[in-house]
Amino acid sequence: MTQSGASIENHNNNIQFSISLIKEIYAAEFGSDSDLLNDILTDTTELYQGKWDSHQSCKTGYHNLNHALDVTLLTARMIGGWNRIKGHDHPPIDTDLFLAAIASALFHDSGYIMEKGDAKGSGGKYSFNHEARSMSLARSYLTRKKWPPRSIELVPAIISLTRFNVPLQFEGLFNSEEEDIIGRMMATADLVAQMADVNYMDHIKDLYAELKEAYDFESVAALQKSGYKVFSSAQEMVDGTLDFYENFVVPRLKQLGQMDQYLVKFFREGRNPYMENITANLSGQLTTKRPNWQRLGDVLNDLGMVSQDQIQAALKLQEQSRKIKPQVDKPPESLSDTLMAWMEGTLSAGKCIGEYLMDMDVLSPKHLRTGLLHQVLPANIIEILSRKELIFLLRISLLRQNIARGPWLLNQILEMTNELLNCEGSHILLAKTESQEMLIAVPTGPNKDQLDGQIFPADKGLAGWVFSHGHPAIVSNVRKDKRFDSEIDRNTRGKYETESIMAVPLNINGQLVGVMEAINKVEGEFTEHDLNILTLVANVITSSLEGVFHLQTPLS
Asked: Which of 489, 504, 550 minimizes the C-alpha distance to 355?
């Protein structure tokens, strides 16, 4: 699949941002720049991009440059936290050891990259022996670049600690406590960076694709005989995430000395953001039976109606059509003129992907209808709703047909939601992307007049967390959740005290546009079932808003 120019630019910006953060940490620790650091960051970036004479560009979906830089940045942060603790039992990590740690992190998964002339697969076939290839490649590079002799031996030794299928072995690897520390830190970073990735659950499909290639290359029987766990699907990996974390990651982190504890010192706020992300990822996995919003193409693919190749072809047609703006001589004067213009497509912001799939004769109108219904009201959730809840959804679905008359209808839908969920209030918050802020656009509840129009940073508070991560959240006691920002709450809600919150992301055609919140359950606590209801309401609202955006001239 080809990336758009915008996505490639964002990807490159993320790479450069990570590199700049690593350099900043080095400068803060040692008060200067480093030619070795600059060179290895440039050279390994070019290795992954296929600019070396010896290697192709990295083709694996997860173990790529982004992951390598994530692990490198996390390693640097742990070293920075370690060095802030003074005392005889915390010998400082010096320049040579810092650079050795960086080198090991940058090269630790380079074994997935295929050499020039290798035409089989994408590199996933090396899943079960990539560490040895990484160690060899690192040693070759460091020798060629005339790094200190000890670093040339130390870096491969550190990489050896990332082997997940064998017990940790430290004996004979390190010559000092400081070397041991950086080795443990890099191995810790490899685990924590993966689990803390905000897109970790989505990346499991990429991880499985790499393993599937290795299964085919090595043979399942041989791998099972060697004691490897062989997964039958990406879903099996998703379902096993909690067991993997509890039974492998947690014990491994303890064996490594719980090196992630030094992140608290690095961030200086008594926080470990990486562990907060891991908690969020795992809590999201716990609610896999609750439907998050899905793109229509993914829904149709999950239902087995279209293939990924057909979806990509339809997306390409959609992208091409967006470059052609419809010409309108004059705005419609009457309701009938408006409807005619809409039916002719002159008021439309573009067809949905389902319409392009119908144009391609790969999807019937009946199947598109089924997909659209599943997108808004997933069948497995409809089956567990009570009669009262079903009638409620019917009522708001009927009410939303008048959404083009004005946003006041959203207030009515939220007021109805408050009654159903038995909560004191609810809000729709919209993201202001240019200023990186969140606007309380539709408030309900005791302080709705004071809340209306309030603005706060988009990365703060629980709403900011839900928006930035794209995951829902339930907080039964806001005073016990670090994601909740009491200062923002105090400034925006005045005397109205927040006790509990439930929040879901708002998506319009695959784009996060804001957050929907329910505040203060009157009796008891918010439940997963409540979260299902709020998600369905959010789906109904956003599908209505998408229709408003497509029909840009309001009905009179």
From this structure: 550
Helices (H), 161-249: 177-196, 200-218, 220-225, 234-239, 241-244
Token pair listed for 217: 């290359």
Q: Look at residue 551 in the predicted model and tell me its pLDDT.
A: 41
Closest CA to 439 of 464, 473, 475, 412: 464
Q: Give pLDDT tens digits for 474-522.
A: 888 888 777 887 777 776 666 678 888 999 988 776 677 889 999 999 9
Beta carbons within 10 angstroms of residue 331's beta carbon: 11
Residue, of 295 and 261, whose pLDDT is higher: 261
Q: Bridge-partner residues for 475, per DSSP?
A: 501
Mean pLDDT of all residues in the chain? 81
For residues 372 and 540, give the distance between their C-alpha atoms in angstroms, rounded to a whole number: 11
Q: What is the mean pLDDT of residues 309-328?
A: 69
Q: Give the C-alpha separation, 378 to 405, whole Å.
A: 28
Instruction: Identify the CA nearest to 60 among candidates 107, 113, 115, 135.
Output: 113
Flag whether pLDDT at 17 surpasses 60: yes
DSSP assignments along 83-109, one per residue: HTS-STTSPPP-HHHHHHHHHHHHHTT
Whole-Å CA distances, 149 to 44, 153, 171, 249, 349:
20, 7, 20, 33, 62
Structure tokens at 444: 């309900």
Q: What is the SS3 string spanning 445-476?
A: CCCHHHHCCCEEECCCHHHHHHHHHCCCEEEC
Domains of the chain listed by start with CATH number: 5-286 (1.10.1300.10), 385-556 (3.30.450.40)
Is residue 137 within 8 A of residue 110, CB to CB? The reply is yes
Pairing of strands 455-457, 423-432: unpaired
In the structure, how many helices (H) and strands (E) does the chain have? 26, 6
Q: How far is CA 189 from the centre of its chain?
A: 18
pLDDT at position 291 over 50: no
| Residue whose entry in the numeric block shows the structure tokens 């789906």 | 539
What's the average model confidence in pLDDT over 354-370? 74
Q: Do 179 and 170 meet the contact criterion of CB atoms below 8 Å apart?
A: no
